[in-house]
Amino acid sequence: LLFRPLPGYMDADRVRNGISAGKDVDGITDLSMSGVFSGSGTGYPPCPAQACIEILDHYSIDITGRKAAVIGRSLVAGRPVSMLLLERNATVTICHTGTKDMAAVCREADILVVSAGRAGMIGRGCLREGQVVIDVGINVREDGTICGDVDYAEACRTAGAVTPVPGGVGAVTTAVLASHVVAAAECAFRKMRF
Known about the structure:
The chain has helices at about 10-15, 30-40, 45-60, 80-85, 100-110, 150-160, 170-190, and strands at about 65-70, 90-95, 110-115, 130-135, 140, 145, 160. With about 190 residues, the chain is α/β, with parallel strands linked by helices.
């Protein structure tokens, strides 16, 4: 694991890409990311992105043929979760600060993944009944409490299912990281010669 941010005098890209894909359990190298975007299986996907898919799988939510909207385009969650949804045959729209009428795009989605980094930005106007809402965001309010990017109370009244913050994607992300560590160790063990 590479804990960031690195000191300013270090070349963060060089350090990050110095990790071999087989050991990149956090999915942060360009090679691991290319595995996500190409579907080749090289390396590991970023843990938050895979956590979203694990949640959908755990609750037997079929992704095939569903409309998915992803709010945010970071390399940690937004872009990679879009590719993982696409790999599972969802029709994916990626929304960002330049998206026109984002609320309408969100309402059309069967699966809404929110990873924008803005507390409570998704409220009633973006939600509809029956949606699955996955909140990847984590924000700290002025009073020190933690909340997501989705207005959780409103989503509970409207959507069919919604992940809480804290206790949702973050907890699963930790479990995904542990599974990547185990997989990497098993792979390394199989390559050892005795």
